[in-house]
Amino acid sequence: MSEADGLMRLRLPIAVTYNWSAGPNATSHLAGLMEGKLIGKRCPSCSSVYFPARNGVCPKCARILAEDVTVGPKGTITTFCIVNVPFLGQKIKLPYVAAQILLDGADISMQHLIQECEAEDVRIGMRVEPVWKDRSEWGPSMENIEHFRPTGEPDQVMGSESGAS
Amino acid sequence: MGLRDIAIVGTAQRPSEINSTFTSVELLLPIIQEVLTKVGIERQDIGFWCHGSCDYMSGQPFSFVAAVDAIGAWPPIIESHVEADGAFALYEAWVKLQTGEVDVALVFSNGKTTSGPINRILNLQTDPYMVAPLWPGFDVLSALQARACLEAGVVTQRQMAEVAWRSQRDGKNNPFTLSGTEMSVDELLSQPFTVDPLRAHDCAIPVDGANAIILAAGDAARRLAKRPAWIRGIDHRIDTQRLGARSMIESSSATIAAQKAGVGKDRIDVAELHAPYTHQELLLRQAMGLSESTHINPSGGALVANPAMAAGLARFAEAAESVFSGSADRVLAHCTSGPLLQQNLVCVMEGE
């Protein structure tokens, strides 16, 4: 409580602790990350491969995603954005690139950082690969991957990959 | 323009769990498939979907959006969500069916009540300036209400224990609840207070649960169910959120809602009351003018299984099932929300 400027101010912080469960269906995805594996899930109905495994269900078919599928580690940039605006708590040097990456074998893209190249050189169709943090820093998180970097392979012609949705 | 005839034609409930390791989406998906199978229709036959849940319970803003995964949103669907018990989603679906735009609606709700301190989480529903910062929690607020009721002579400790005893006895026959203790009324009365004057048996058991109900209008309802539970009246009333500005020993919103829903027009065979505390069931019975001949909470009620945000819709499922089976002709389903019976939704259903 303070009384600056003749005004009484109260700070009333709110905190609640939860036991969060990833659920049996997304657990193999998170456990895979602990071992440096990229494990997605295949829908038994439409065969789409989800990485990450979302809530463990296919939102198109409303079916449980039962089958584990290893995807990547390489992938293709499907779209990207160059970040030039500084904001509070920013950890990465500007400008940097946030990209949607479609991992090989997956049907939905995921967002990650692109580093080890100039922002202006990033393009749709560019082939990229993950750069992992030191194993001692790994947890059940996509943050185990520090960033993605260009592989130098020829660009993927967009639209030729299968089933992106 | 008159109102359309709308009925509950199918229900499905998930057995109660404590500390479920499933996500909310995983809790919901099988129960939605079960109710569709029971009624014999496909996802594509549903014209409107409505969901009731509370983001505070999962601690994730917009977590309710993920629930759409459980219903399958392709081809595109018409859906809505209420940040409340599924019973209020049922009310919205009833309004949607009244517009005549759709003939069949599916309502669903879920609550992982044991994944956080529910008493503390629900505290966040109280007035954020004068009440919430004191962190009273619902148990303490309800104990104050029970104290006021006892001192005014509106309820007695023995009546409260009798409500608990009857709920635990009936809950044992309900596969969706967790079985309670087998103590007599006298033994219950000898138990220590948890929040004076409430004992453990006076407070609902928090559980994780999910349920789903299919509503249909007119001929669609007659086609989908042998004996639909026709909604004859439904009404929702709210008391002021200022706890000090309303009477603790009556529930005027429940009285008005019951009157508007037509409770007093004829006898009620079964009333499923959503009363998370024993004294609140007694208050509700008085407020709605329910007679001794009405069978209260044959399911055991929320006292023996209270999946927050799904416990009210469970009352609708239980009441409708008693019409489906023919064990009752005219039933009442009720849902409350907010501290101390602040909001009350009352629905009267009949078989033909």
Automatic annotation (TrEMBL), chain A:
It comes from freshwater metagenome. Residues 69-133 form the ChsH2 C-terminal OB-fold domain. Residues 31-61 form the ChsH2 rubredoxin-like zinc ribbon domain. Residues 146-165 are annotated as: Disordered. InterPro entries: ChsH2_C (IPR002878), ChsH2_Znr (IPR022002), NA-bd_OB-fold (IPR012340), Thioester_dehydratase-like (IPR052513). This is Unannotated protein. The lineage of its organism: unclassified sequences, metagenomes, ecological metagenomes.
TrEMBL record, chain B:
One of its GO terms (molecular function) is acyltransferase activity, transferring groups other than amino-acyl groups. It comes from freshwater metagenome. InterPro entries: Thiolase (IPR002155), Thiolase-like (IPR016039). This is Unannotated protein. NCBIfam families: PRK07937.1.
